[in-house]
Design a protein that fits this description.
alpha/beta, phosphoprotein, transcription, Tscrpt_reg_LuxR_C, 220 residues, DNA binding, 11 helices, six-stranded parallel β-sheet
Length: 220
């Protein structure tokens, strides 16, 4: 059962999300929050699998709430859901530690599958935003980030194979694609991916993608 905390400043929006989520046999809504401060408190107390987080809210916004929830080191993952299809929100949210970003005009099935994916450790980014987000990384990277740095502690601990796996994760390959193209069993790929996430301190695949760009393994 995937547990969810709904965070949105609009009561009717929260009600709609609750109705949709609770219609699923594998999901349950633990509680709701109307602002970022309330979300942080309830996430720490309830420890949901997923926080469904709005961006624009009075007081503490969803980006800062996401940063504080993910910084706590708890297992809770954040899926940002906003009305605004704006690259700055997506980039800021993912850098803050969110595992996914969808806009509110997404189909109900997309939202449900997004929650399931985030709960299982995968990353979700709204279609159409992925390429723009990757292109945006180059403008946020420190000057001189052009070649992979073996001195970067996130890369230093990786084996050659794990470094290769991180590179193709950064290029957006799925486990199935990695297995097919590198001629590996999918179970072996999953093991490699798990080790890469652990060694690079990446919460999930989207954070691994950011790592691949920041360390220079992948460039647009």
């Amino acid at each position: 059962m995937t547990t969810v905390l709904i965070v949105d400043d609009q009561p009717l929006q929260r009600f709609g999300f609750r109705m949709l989520l609770e219609s699923q046999d594998d999901m349950t809504v633990l509680d709701e929050a109307a602002n970022g401060t309330e979300a942080i408190r309830k996430a720490a107390h309830l420890r949901p699998d997923v926080v469904l987080m709005d961006v624009r809210m009075p007081g503490l916004d969803g980006i800062e709430a996401t940063r504080r929830i993910t910084a706590s080191g708890d297992r809770t993952r954040v899926l940002i859901l906003t009305t605004f299809d704006v690259d700055e929100y997506a980039y800021a949210g993912l850098r803050a530690g969110a595992s996914g970003f969808l806009v509110k005009d997404a189909e109900p099935e997309d939202l449900l599958s997004g929650i399931r994916a985030v709960a299982s450790g995968d990353a979700v980014v709204a279609p159409g935003l992925t390429r723009r987000l990757l292109d945006a990384y180059v403008h946020h990277l420190p000057a001189g980030t052009t070649e992979p740095s073996a001195a970067d502690p996130r890369l230093a601990a990786l084996t050659d194979r794990e470094r290769e796996i991180l590179t193709v994760i950064g290029k957006g390959w799925t486990n199935t694609e990695i297995a097919e193209r590198l001629h590996l069993a999918e179970s072996t790929v999953k093991t490699h991916v798990s080790r890469v996430l652990a060694k690079t301190a990446s919460r999930d695949r989207v954070q691994a993608v950011i790592c691949a760009y920041e360390t220079g393994l992948v460039r647009p």
